[in-house]
Specification:
Blueprint lengths: L2 H23 L10 H4 L14 E6 H7 L2 E3 L2 E6 L2 E9 L10 E3 L4 E3 L6 E3 L4 E3 L8 E2 L1 E4 L2 E5 L1
Antiparallel strand pairs: 1-11, 2-3, 3-4, 4-9, 5-6, 6-7, 7-8, 10-11
Length: about 150
């Protein structure tokens, strides 16, 4: 066997040996060593929200004046069924990632990209979205609107 052929076999063997580790490094799978606290830092639903980890989004006066409070991708509105409660959702449409807009006259969120419609609690009213908007625990305390993040 000549030297060129021997080197090409070594090169091929090297590529084949690192291929599995390269593929694993590109995957989205979580390693077993990853702590649960990193995956649970942003709750996707009211049930997943940690108790007592609330931050102020705005005042009740602001909410009543503007009809909504917006902070980052979180939108807070009054519960149409109970004016003493507030509802908080992530405003990123679950269909295509556009930012939904609150339509206070219709009491629903509407996606400007594909006209998907969501209820005030994030439930899908009309597609093309199939999954509801992620919800957050929200409350009113001492004139402040608080959301668990």
């Amino acid at each position: 066997m000549d030297r060129r052929k021997l080197l090409s076999w070594f090169g091929l063997g090297w590529v084949v040996s690192i291929l599995p580790t390269s593929l694993v490094g590109c995957s989205d799978a979580k390693s077993p060593n990853e702590s649960a606290s990193t995956t649970a830092s942003v709750p996707e639903s009211v049930d997943a929200a940690p108790i007592g980890n609330f931050k102020a989004i705005g005042t009740v006066a602001q909410l009543d004046k503007d009809g909504q409070l917006v902070s980052d991708k979180i939108v807070v509105v009054r519960d149409p069924k109970d004016k003493n409660k507030v509802l908080a959702v992530n405003a990123t449409c679950t269909h295509n990632g556009c930012t939904v807009k609150w339509k206070s006259d219709k009491k629903q969120y509407v996606c400007p990209c594909h006209d998907a419609k969501f209820a005030s609690n994030g439930a899908v009213l009309e597609g093309p979205a199939k999954k509801p908007l992620p919800r957050y625990a929200a409350k009113i305390e001492k004139g402040q609107v608080l959301v668990s993040t």
